[in-house]
Design goal:
Elements lengths: L5 H18 L5 E5 L6 E4 L4 E4 L3 E5 L6 H20 L3 E2 H10 L7 H15 L8 E2 L5 E3 L2 E4 L9 E3 L7 E2 L2 H4 L2 E5 L3 E5 L2 H9 L2 H4 L2 E5 L6 H13 L4 E4 L4 H12 L16 E4 L2 H6 L5 E2 L2 H12 L8 H11 L1 E2 L12 H11 L1
Parallel strand pairs: 5-6, 12-13, 12-14, 14-15
Antiparallel strand pairs: 1-4, 2-3, 7-10, 7-13, 8-9, 8-11, 16-17
Helix pairs in contact: 1-2, 2-4, 11-12
Length: 350
């Protein structure tokens, strides 16, 4: 990450702001965009969540603010150092770094929250200041990338080079796209089905970039999906389990999440959820299980969310209520190992 980046400039700007306040003998303060429910708005025109105008004041005048404001300044200093030294860290790593200087984080969720506050203040996602979660998703594609990270600048690799796919880490997520034969992106929730798609050469049969989301897609993966859509103009199709959680996994890729409303770069509004649908359970006579009480509760929550008020979401939610069943992607194996790729996927993409 270069020093000229927005993240670097805004972190330095935050530091200068606080320094000037100290020089004027004023108690330092910072305005933080509120991420409360009433300040998180779904922008239908943009197709994703955004933060409203409300802000909170954190100031050294308030004794209760001393600890979180000190933690915020420390996290900002770590972020700048990571950019300056062109190094990366993880959310977990930052928590343990804080333990070394006795900043008083109760647990990692508290340090994660401070990192999120820094994102909202400087208007840049944590990935832009080199802080990532643990990697767990993967990609397989006829896509040649060029690394930009220190020590690997200019090195190129084709993403069909490993039979298990390549893990989507910081280096891959920020690489340049050089060339690809693909004309679409297919996102797959489950690891077993991702492996099946690779083995059945779905990437070649359908000219597709295959991405394993590993359940709820990590932020670096969601940014990569958006980049493939916006930079290469590739349509994105999402395949999940036929259950309420699968719907949500797809919707977060499409419209983002309320927790990350301050990071619009994570949403891909043009992406499409392509199944597995509740109606597929009946149409294909898939092995299924009964919806649990927690599933019904989740469906009722989704039904109230206006993002699910359009098709096919609305129809499929009603179908779940009607049949009271759910099924996994692997259920198509009932018809053989290649059925999902050769029959179901072909029909859905058509």
């Amino acid at each position: 990450m270069k020093k000229e980046s927005k993240a670097w400039r805004n972190i330095v700007g935050l530091a200068i702001q606080i320094l000037k306040q100290v020089e004027r003998r004023e108690p330092p303060f910072v305005e933080i965009p509120l991420r409360t429910v009433d300040n998180i708005v779904f922008d239908e025109k943009k197709g994703h969540y955004v933060l409203g105008p409300k802000k909170a004041l954190r100031t050294f005048r308030n004794v209760k603010h001393l600890k979180p404001l000190t933690q915020l300044v420390w996290v900002a200093s770590v972020a700048r150092r990571l950019i300056d030294e062109d190094k990366t860290s993880t959310l977990r790593d930052v928590f343990y770094m804080a333990e070394g200087v006795d900043l008083g984080f109760e647990d990692q969720s508290e340090s994660d929250r401070i990192i999120t506050e820094l994102e909202s203040i400087i208007g840049a996602p944590r990935e832009d200041f080199n802080i990532y979660p643990e990697e767990r998703s993967a990609i397989f594609a006829d896509l040649t990338i060029e690394y930009t990270v220190k020590g690997y600048e200019g090195k190129r690799i084709n993403l069909t080079s490993h039979p298990d796919g390549l893990m989507i880490g910081p280096a891959l997520a920020t690489a340049k796209f050089i060339k690809t034969s693909a004309d679409k992106v297919i996102c797959i929730e489950k690891g077993a089905m991702f492996t099946r798609f690779v083995e059945e050469k779905a990437w070649k049969k359908y000219n597709a970039i295959l991405i394993h989301t590993a359940g709820q897609a990590p932020r670096a993966t969601r940014r990569l999906i958006r980049r493939l859509n916006t930079e290469l103009d590739l349509p994105v199709y999402i395949f999940t389990d036929a259950d309420p959680w699968g719907l949500h996994i797809a919707q977060v890729i499409i419209s983002g999440s309320a927790n990350a409303a301050h990071v619009p770069e994570l949403a891909t509004p043009r992406a499409k959820w392509m199944g597995v649908y509740a109606s597929d359970i009946e149409e294909y006579k898939l092995p299924s299980t009964r919806l649990l009480d927690v599933d019904i509760k989740r469906l009722n929550e989704l039904k109230k969310d206006k993002r699910y008020s359009k098709e096919p979401w609305k129809k499929e939610i009603e179908k779940f209520f009607e049949i009271k069943k759910k099924a996994e992607q692997e259920a198509f194996s009932k018809y053989g190992l290649s059925y999902m790729v050769d029959v179901y996927l072909k029909k859905r993409l058509a």
